[in-house]
Amino acid sequence: ACCERWFSWDKHTCNGGIGSSEWYIDWKLEKCVKDCDDSSDADCGGFAKSWDERYGSSQDACCDQISSYTTRDKCTVDK
C-alpha cells in the first residue's frame, strides 16, 4: 500500500525489485508477458511501466485484448 500510494511511478524499486507477476501487453513485441524479471521464466517480460494496463493472473484476459493483432496461440512469447 505504501509503494502504491507514494511511489506509484516506480513500485518495483520500492518493492525491492519484485514484480507483480500480472500479465500485461508488451506493445513492441505485440505479446502478453508477465510483470517480472526472472530469467528462468520465459513469460517474464521485465517490469511493467506504471501506464501498462495489467490483466491480473489471467493470461487469457491479456490475450483477449490483443486478439486483433495476433492469434491466441501466438499471444505470448515463444518458448
- What is the percentage of strand-forming residues? 5-15%
Give the SSE string: HHEEH
The strands making up the biggest β-sheet line up spatially as: 1-2
Quick one: biggest sheet? 2 strands, antiparallel
Low confidence ranges: none
Strands, count: 2
Count of helical regions: 3
Rounded to the nearest angstrom, the distance between the terminal CA atoms is: 34 Å
Radius of gyration: 13 Å
Helical percent range?
10-25%
Name the structural class: alpha+beta
Q: Can you describe what's shown?
A:
The model has no long low-confidence stretch (mean pLDDT 84). The protein has a two-stranded antiparallel sheet. It is α+β, with helices and mostly antiparallel strands. The protein is built from three helices and two strands. Strand 1 and strand 2 form a beta hairpin. It is 20% helix and 10% strand.
Strand and helix map with partners:
Elements: H1 2-6, H2 11-14, E1 23-26, E2 31-34, H3 59-65
Antiparallel strand pairs: 1-2
Structure in a nutshell:
The chain has 79 residues and is of the alpha+beta class. The chain is built from three helices and two strands, in the order H-H-E-E-H.
Give short descriptive properties of this protein.
79 residues; 10% strand; two-stranded antiparallel ribbon; elongated
